[in-house]
Amino acid sequence: MNLEEMILKIREFAAQNNFEQYIINFDDRELLLIIGGLISILGLFLFLILRKFLRKNVVEDISEDELPDALKNKSVDEESLETEADDEETVEVSHQAPSKSWRDRLSLGLSSTRDGVWGKLENIFNAKKLDDDTLEQIEELLYSADMGHEIIDEIIESFKKEMSKEDNDFSNFKSWTKNFLKEKLDPIQSHVDHSLFEFKKDSGLKVFMIVGVNGAGKTTTIGKLATKLKKQGANVVVGACDTFRAAAVEQLEVWCQRADVEMIKAKEGNDPSGVAYDTLAKAKSLNADYCLLDTAGRLHTASGLMDELSKTKKVLTKLDENAPHQTLLVIDSITGQNALNQAKEFNKALNLSGLVLTKCDGSSKAGNAVSMASALNVPITYIGVGEDVEDLEIFKIDEYLGALLG
Ligand SMILES: Nc1nc2c(ncn2[C@@H]2O[C@H](COP(=O)(O)OP(=O)(O)OP(=O)(O)O)[C@@H](O)[C@H]2O)c(=O)[nH]1
Ligand SMILES: [Mg+2]
């Protein structure tokens, strides 16, 4: 059918159905334009409907009656459940399959720390006989690696005793140090709860709250964890409690879509503890296995923001007296020893149950993990050496020390 025939058919159809008077004043070209416009609008509607279906995040509103008094009016209202994230910066998440094994990536990630400290130590041992001067150089190098003065003092003092022995070469010093650090960490690491890594069916809902300073890697860690747990068959619900920035929600949303897990979010500026509460309520209603709560980054010195975290933690107990089961502090290993002060403040406010050490690939200070865990008496749960899902793994002392010391 050509265009003229089509126009003729439309006019006949209009005459038969009594709406000829509406189109009689339009010539053929105008009629074509109108039809074209209508088809475009219809196409746009279909596209928007399809897009809404494809964006899988289901957001449920919790009835007002289910909320504790403290949260009424502050919680996530249905209208606000859409973010304006589309107008914000776009966030990309890389998910390429790793070409190297975890051990290789860990070794590569820790190479700056290894080469920056231990390689230089080897030179010291090779160059001279060990004496007080050499010990001072060793001490300085360990400080430059941000090992933490308590541990360094212990290493040097204990090693002085060893110096009297004949076999004082670098490889002995290295294996001696490895043992020393392992003995330090072993008792602390034995407190790690295995529900963090392994999903066991029907073992009840586990709530993890992830905290840390700005940019430490909290959202990325949650994304990686959600992916790993989901792959094990767990039902995971994630809460976007960073309501300060719409882009933060969008970043988490990308991870959750990839992991195919549900995410609860609220409009920018909503009460973060309201989102945490709603997420836990949703996780319970779904009989979920894990509820992971992302929080906004904050400086440990910002007392108002630290109080907000304590409030969030408390609000969760209204739904589950044991929640959160894990409060994990994410630490950017580039921060070095400054991270210890941060960690102490977070621990004081939240009673941490674990540390997650990120960005070991970009740092020469990844050795500070040992001093941090031992100073806080809080175990290291995960270690991150990159931005991909596969770049986060369970922290294993032997693996870590092997990669660190070579
Ligand atoms: N190289 C490297 N980059 C990482 C690692 N973990 C996270 N990142 C990157 O660090 C940046 C910050 O990570 P986020 O997860 O947004 O950090 P955050 O703590 O949620 O940040 P805020 O929400 O702003 O406080 C992102 O570009 C991540 O891709 C890691 O182990 N190695
Ligand atoms: Mg974040």
Report on this model:
The structure is a single chain. This protein is α/β, with parallel strands linked by helices. 50% of the residues lie in helices and 10% in strands. Strand 6 (354-358), helix 14 (368-376) and strand 7 form a beta-alpha-beta unit. It is elongated and about 110 Å long. The structure holds guanosine-5'-triphosphate and magnesium ion. Magnesium ion is lined by residues 218-219, 242, 248, 294. Magnesium ion binds next to helix 9.
Task: Summarize the topology.
Elements: H1 3-16, H2 20-23, H3 28-54, H4 102-109, H5 111-127, H6 132-144, H7 149-163, H8 170-189, E1 206-211, H9 218-231, E2 236-240, H10 246-259, E3 262-264, H11 272-285, E4 290-294, H12 303-316, E5 326-332, H13 338-350, E6 354-358, H14 368-376, E7 380-384, E8 392-394, H15 397-405
Parallel strand pairs: 1-4, 1-5, 2-3, 2-4, 5-6, 6-7
Antiparallel strand pairs: 7-8
The structure holds guanosine-5'-triphosphate and magnesium ion.
